[in-house]
């Protein structure tokens, strides 16, 4: 079982690789994505927004009406690298949306009040 330190190390390893212009190792990227999704779930508890970061994870978060069947009305989806950058404050929500790095649908899908979830 991984410790919190291992997860933090994964986030640091991914950010270091990106800063060096290298692709982050898959294992660290997966662990960083999952740790940061868990951080978002802790910061914004609830089940009204589904956040998807394929292929590494998905969570439900943000207080509001709970979704139980079919496609949720509030969905955020992004790639793993963009999620790490968003969750650590390296890129802003508005910038990521304008650049097409995230898709967000539904009235509760703006996650900017809950970001970043991890301070660098």
Structure notes:
The structure is a single chain. By secondary structure, the chain is an alpha+beta fold. The protein has a single domain, classed as 2-Layer Sandwich (Nonspecific Lipid-transfer Protein, Chain A). The chain is 40% helix and 15% strand. It contains four helices and four strands, in the order ααβββααβ. It has a four-stranded mixed sheet with strand order 2-1-3-4. Strand 1 (49-53) and strand 2 (57-61) form a beta hairpin. Helix 1 packs across helix 2 (26-43) and helix 2 crosses helix 3 (80-87). The longest helix is centred in the N-terminal third of the chain and has 18 residues, at 26-43. The chain is globular. The two termini are 24 Å apart. 35% of the residues are buried. The model has no long low-confidence stretch (mean pLDDT 91).
Estimated helix fraction: 40-55%
Biggest sheet strand line-up: 2-1-3-4
CATH topology: Nonspecific Lipid-transfer Protein, Chain A
Number of domains: 1
Number of helical elements: 4
| The CATH class | Alpha Beta
Global mean pLDDT: 91
Structural class: alpha+beta
Strand content: 15-25%
- List SSEs in N-to-C order: HHEEEHHE
- Measured distance between first and last alpha carbons: 24 Å
């Amino acid at each position: 079982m991984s410790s919190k330190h291992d997860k933090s190390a994964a986030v640091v390893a991914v950010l270091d690789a990106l800063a060096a212009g290298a692709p982050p190792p898959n294992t660290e990227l997966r662990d960083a994505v999952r740790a940061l999704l868990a951080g978002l779930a802790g910061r914004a508890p609830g089940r009204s927004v589904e956040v998807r970061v394929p292929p590494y994870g998905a969570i439900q978060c943000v207080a509001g009406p709970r979704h139980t069947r079919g496609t949720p009305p509030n969905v955020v989806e992004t790639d793993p690298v963009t999620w790490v950058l968003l969750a650590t404050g390296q890129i802003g929500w508005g910038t990521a949306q304008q650049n097409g790095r995230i898709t967000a649908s539904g009235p509760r899908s703006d996650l900017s009040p809950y970001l970043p979830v991890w301070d660098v």
